[in-house]
Each structure stands twice: as C-alpha cells, then as structure tokens.
Design a protein that fits this description.
Layout (H helix, E strand, L loop, with lengths): L1 E4 L5 E4 L1 H7 L3 H4 L4 H4 L5 H12 L6 E8 L5 E10 L9 E8 L1 H9 L4 H10 L3 E6 L4 E4 L1 H6 L4 H6 L2 H9 L5 H14 L3 E6 L5 E11 L2 E11 L1 H22 L7 E2 H18 L3 E8 L2 H8 L1 H18 L5 E6 L2 E7 L3 H17 L2 E4 L2 E3 L3 E7 L6 H17 L5 E3 L3
Parallel strand pairs: 11-13, 17-18
Antiparallel strand pairs: 1-2, 1-5, 3-4, 4-5, 6-7, 6-10, 8-9, 9-10, 12-14, 12-17, 13-14, 15-16
Helix pairs in contact: 13-14, 14-15
C-alpha cells in the first residue's frame, strides 16, 4: 500500500510489503515518485487512469502494470487507486493498493506454450481456470475452478456443458449481465477483467484471456479468483479511514468541521476562486455574551448552546457550504460561488433562527442567545490571512455596534 500526492505522484507513505515487492527501502522510495519505478511502456496508461480520477470521471480505478525493481527486473502488479479523502473536490492525496501478480502473468504466458505445460500450470495456480473454445465448449478446467464454483465432481465428469453453465449461472446475482458481456467479448476478441457478485455474498475477480495457437484465436481462458475477503478488508479499511478523517476534522461537540480543516478547505476554495474567477464569501460568527452565560449557568449548559447553534447552522446552509467551529464560541462559514449579498441573506437567516432558540439553563428561566456575524467577499489574489482578518474585523464591528447583527462590508 502507498500514499502519493496528487500533484506530482510523489510518495508520501509506503508500507513494508510494497518495499519488499520492489526491493527498495522506504527511504529510497520516499525520495521519488511512482513514475520513477513504473515501466516506461506503462507510464502513459498510468497517467490516463490518474487523469480520469483527477477530472472526476471516476472516483477509483484499477489496472495492470509493470514496475521496475531495484535490481532491474520487472514485476507485474494490479494497481487499485482511489482518493485518500473522497470528500475533496480536488484530491490532494491518493491511496494505492498494489498486488503482485507476476506469478499469474507468468502462468498466463505459459498457457500458450504446450498442452503439457498448460495442465501443470492449471493445477498449480490458486485461481480457478476454465478453457473454452470459440463455440463455448469446455476444453479444460482445473480442480480449483470446481472448488471455487462448488461444482460436484459428478457434474464435472458428466461433460454436459449446458448443465454446467446453468449450474454456474444460477449462483450469480445477475447472470444475464454476465452472459451479455461474454457475448460481446467473443464478438470482439478482446481481453477483459471484471468482478462477479454471487447470491450468497461472495465476490470473484474474473479475467478473460484469448487462447491463441499459431496466431489464430481458438478460444478463451477464464480465470476466477475469490476476492470476498479482500473486498471485506478493503471496505473495512475505507470505513476506518473515513472514521479517522471524521474524527480528525470534525468538532466533537458541534459536529461542524474544526479550525484545522477550515484552513485546509479555505486554501482549496481560494485557489478555485482565483482560477475560475468565482465569488467566495466568508462569514465569521461569534456568540454574544457567551462567557457571561457560561459563568452564570456552567459549562454543561454552555455546551448545549454551542451544540444547538451547530444544528441551526446546518439547517440554514446548502450542501455545498462549509461550516466550522473556529474556536470557543467563534465559528466560520465558507460559501463557495456566493456573493456577499447572497451571503448576507444566509447570515441573516442564521441570526434570526438562532435567536428563536429557547434555552432553560435553570428552573423557571428561559434564555435567548444572540450571535454577531461579519461577512465579506474574497478579493482576487488576496492573501488568506488578510481575508480572514478583514472578516474578523467586521464581526467585531458588529459587536461594537450593539451585537445581534450581521455586519457586511460596505463598498
């Protein structure tokens, strides 16, 4: 497994197994990029897959490629690549899961050599192998194929291809889709890979290779691998990563993003605004007299105010907006593709909605808390700190002018 930066494909982290596959130390790999060890003939293919992810055409991609080991030899691998943080509009880091398939590749090449070698390889591989001629008749199948598909030996020995096909198809979640793809493959003489979902929850990785004799395609070799456990581990890893990201960027009390994530996202939005000349508006919000409330009623009641303010903010924003707990009782909100005039409408909605909230910190006491909000639109090429400071001053101006108000910038 590796983590690379999206901009230059340079290594950020590599695990021990990746180092073992390539024969490099982690220190050596971290000085370069994934392109440095990719076989030159596969570099264009690498870039095509990565560009599709960067362009948002797909969120993940998987393909076979070659790497150059430190000793100069070549290793074949299946690469699975996905953004490390799927929530990012423009991914900054990518996660790569690399599987060494060199042995399988060698096995595939050996299938074309001779019948004797073919049989030996068929029975030695961990994949289920099925060789079928151009008319769909079974030529050979290894024991692993029967084991994977749970086919009784009596059915294998019977030699009835139609009954065997029906037995196999009845196990799939969508047999019609598989048969349709098979017909297209035979019509086009193409090599293909896919996954098969079973009714019982199993997942197979399926490869289809041309069987060639004297430059003539005489059939196909189908290779099946049970990847159910690998899928489970990959999903668990993604869930764990998602949970870790949530814990690292979300404020536990308000369930809004935290200040660390604010600056990370702000840089992304500033770059986007400068590049595409789209408006960007920033709100800085501060709860009025919050310290006095805490002193009077205690931090438990104060936390309730912060939590419910977070809920109000979430209700008032669009899915494309970002809200953050900036620190203490201060909050920030990023409104992409929004002018300050439209942002002022959102700010006023938050102010009025929160003012309606009733708190009962002590028996017989109903208290309302207000918020002061500064708002400004980003100026092209403006420095990040200057932008935040400008909005901060507007918020304090609202405080100075009586609190419980939205203070937009005047031009």
């Amino acid at each position: 497994m590796v983590i690379v930066d999206a901009a230059q494909s340079r290594f950020v982290k590599v695990n021990r197994r990746f180092c073992e596959i390539l024969g490099y130390s982690a220190e050596e790999l971290l000085q370069g990029s994934i392109h440095d060890i990719t076989h030159p003939d596969d570099l264009r293919m690498d870039l095509d897959h990565v560009e599709r992810i960067s362009a948002g055409i797909t969120r993940e991609s998987s393909w076979e490629k070659r790497y150059r080991k430190k000793d100069g030899t070549v290793v074949w691998a299946r690469a699975f690549v996905t953004p490390l943080d799927p929530s990012e509009a423009k991914p900054t880091l990518r996660l790569g899961v690399i599987e060494d398939i060199t042995e399988r590749k060698r096995a595939e090449e050996a299938l074309r050599w001779s019948e004797t070698q073919l049989q030996a390889i068929l029975e030695s591989t961990a994949d289920g192998i099925l060789a079928v001629d151009n008319k769909g008749r079974v030529i050979k199948a290894n024991r692993r194929f029967a084991d994977l598909w749970r086919i009784p030996q009596s059915l294998m020995d019977a030699g009835d291809d139609r009954v065997l096909l029906d037995f196999v198809m009845n196990q799939l979640s969508d047999p019609d889709a598989f048969l349709k793809k098979v017909r297209l493959l035979y019509a086009s003489d193409t090599v293909d890979t896919d996954t098969l979902a079973f009714k019982d929850g199993r997942v197979f990785e399926r490869f289809s290779f041309l069987m060639i004799m004297e430059s003539v395609v005489i059939g196909r070799v189908w290779s099946f691998r049970d990847i159910t456990e690998r899928r489970r581990i990959e999903e668990a890893l993604r869930d764990s990563e998602n949970r870790y990201r949530e814990l690292s960027v979300v404020d536990d009390l308000t369930q809004l993003y935290n200040s660390r994530h604010f600056y990370f996202q702000l840089k992304i939005e500033l770059d986007r605004s400068n590049r595409y000349e789209q408006p960007l508006t920033l709100l800085l919000l501060d709860l009025d007299n919050f310290k006095a409330f805490n002193d009077a009623y205690g931090h438990v009641e104060g936390d309730q105010v912060l939590f419910r303010f977070g809920q109000v903010v979430k209700r008032c924003l669009r899915e494309t907006d970002f809200a953050y707990r900036y620190g203490g009782e201060e909050f920030t909100i990023l409104l992409p593709m929004t002018t300050s005039a439209d942002g002022a409408v959102a700010a006023e909605r938050i102010r009025t909605e929160f003012k309606k909230e009733t708190f009962s910190p002590a028996p017989g006491q109903d208290v309302h808390v207000t918020v002061s909000i500064g708002i400004a639109q980003y100026k092209k090429k403006e420095e990040m700190k200057a932008f935040v400071h400008r909005v901060d001053q507007l918020m304090y101006q609202g405080k100075k002018n009586g609190k419980d108000r939205v203070c937009p910038e005047t031009y």
